[in-house]
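Bug #77: duplicate submission created two jobs. Keeping one. Sequence:
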Amino acid sequence: MYIGRVKGTVVSTIKHALYEGRKLMLVARLNLDGSETSAYDICIDDVQAGVGDVVLVLDEGSSARQVIRKRGTGPVRAVIVGIVEEVTLTR
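Kept job's structure:
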């Protein structure tokens, strides 16, 4: 699981049936200071996130499939499961 920023949407006319009716978002991973890393995922959006939103991403395949209520195999690796309002670090 990680915190990321939605950079854009992904549009595909031909896709696996598991993605039908689902919005795909390009999400950049964030460092603890809020800066973007070079890593990213294409995520299923389960919370109606928008471009620029800071989001919580579940990036474990079988757990992600459970969130979208699909069992068995399928090309799901990451799902946006929350929109982050604030992050507080204690040192």
